[in-house]
Structures are given as structure tokens and as C-alpha cells.
Amino acid sequence: MASHLKEIIPLTQSDCFTLFTRVKSEFDFPIHYHEEYELNFIMNGKGVKRVIGDHMEEIDDWELVMVGPNLPHGWFTHKFSGEEMKEITIQFHKDLLDDGMLRRNQLSFLRNMFNKSRRGILFSTETTKAIAPRILELEKKQGFDSVLELMRILHELSLSRNTRMLSDAYFNNNNENSIYNSRRIKKTIEHMNLHFDKAIKLGEVAQLCNMTEAAFSRFFKAKTGMTFINCLNEIRLGNASRMLIETNHSIAEIAYQCGFNNISNFNRIFKKKKHSTPKDFRESYLGTGTRVFI
Predict the structure, then answer these.
(1) In the listed set 165, 188, 212, which residue is the last one of a domain according to the structure?
(2) 258 shares a domain with 158
(3) Other C-beta atoms within 10 Å of 212: how many?
(4) Cβ atoms 93, 11 nearer than 8 A
(5) Distance (Å, whole) CA 223 – CA 205
(6) 293 falls within a domain
(7) pTM of the model
(8) CA 275 – CA 224 distance, rounded (Å)
(9) Which end of the chain is more exposed for a tag (fewer CB within 10 A), N or C?
(10) Are residues 102 and 182 in the same domain?
(11) Structural domain for 205, as ranges
């Protein structure tokens, strides 16, 4: 069985970032991941298929995506029928800006964007068209000027609106609870991550936090923006997506191993979230030519 390719990119510890420009008529690189952040820009790529984590989508002419560390990703020719497209890939180290600096108030938007990129961020067409000339010109800059311009681009992207996170929050084991400041929320999500394969009652997690069920429900929704059961289903679906991609287990086996009490319930919740049945999701992912065992 093949596995996701861990890419060793040509970015040394002495460099702040690296940039590649390619004019191409097809994509032939398999799904891969790496420790560095990546900003990927594509122009005239209508019909190309994008895979980010467990998210799959056909792209339009303009594409700008930010991919966080160790998130599997790839683009595939799919239905592209044009003569050529342009791709610019910018990759930079996880510690280009360290945690201490990112905690500063003035960099809060950058910090939030980096956190979100662990699921993959799709920027709007409007943002992509606006920032495109600066990305196209970046390779012409050198030294400190190039680093300053990259910082300006990242800052502008961090302020942009109508962004969309792509992969499920719990698909890539990216420690999603680290984005929450509440100790109780972190404790609750850690408990759900450890026991998602079993029945988890509202009462037991409320007790973990020394709260009544009603108080905990209000508290959890206020802090996370979702209900307890929706969060639990997100965790279960993230793990189910991984198993659909990485294993040969039957869909029924995966449903039960991820804590769903019956196959029809699993199919219904999966389709509502993914707009695809588990069977179609697995077949579509395998259609990229990659079976994954990490």
C-alpha cells in the first residue's frame, strides 16, 4: 500500500522562505505533507481538483490556499482542459515567527490565521485577485525586502474576509483544543478525543467541569460556537474520515469504531456534513490515486 508522501522541501534553516513558479498543463505530484507552512496560488486552473486533509473540491480559475504544518494536501489535473496554468508556491518555516512574538497584540490576526491554516484556508476570489500582483512580483525581490513583502502579504491575508476553512477540525489530530483559552473546554475536548469511540453523555462531561448539564451546555456553546453533541460528532467524523482513507475497514466497522450507534445514523450525519456518502467519499479520495497509511 502507498502512503502520503512526506515532502522534504528545499528550504534550509538559513532561509526565511522559498518560492517556486511553474507554468504547467497538469498536476502529477501525489498527496503529500511537510512541516512548513505553504501558500499556494494557481491562476487559470479551472477544473483542477484540490484535496486538503479530508476536503475535496474542484477549483475555479483563481485559487489561493494556505496549508498548515503536516496537513496532507495535493492538486490534481482532474477536469482541467486548458492549455496551461500558473502556480506559485511559497513555503516558510513553522518558527519564522516564534510563539512569543505571535502572542503580541499587534500580531493577533496572524496568529489566528496560522492556527486556522492547520485545517487549510481558502481565500476568496476577490482577495486572491487583489493579492495576486504582489505574489507574482515577490520572486523579483531579494534579501530583507523579500521578507518584508512576504510579511505584508501574510498580514493582508490575515485581515481578509470571506475565508473558508477546508478540512474537518479533528481530521489531522492538530490539537484543535489548543485554540481555546478555557481550561474546562480543553479538558472536555481532551476527554472526547480519548473516548469518542464510546457513548459519551452530557452528564459525564458536565461533571468533569463541576457544572450542571444546563450550565455546561450554555458554557460550551458560548466558548466553542457549537453544541456539545455537534462537537462530539465533529471529532467522530474526523476520525471516520481518516479511517475511510487510511484503512480497508468496512463502512459499518468504521461507524461503530467511531462511536456511531448504527450505520444509518452514521451515513446520515456524514452526508449532512460532507455532502457525500461515506462510500462516495472513499471512492472519490481513492480517485486521486493515493491510498493513505500514515
Answers:
(1) 165
(2) no
(3) 12
(4) yes
(5) 15
(6) no
(7) 0.79
(8) 23
(9) N
(10) no
(11) 177-286
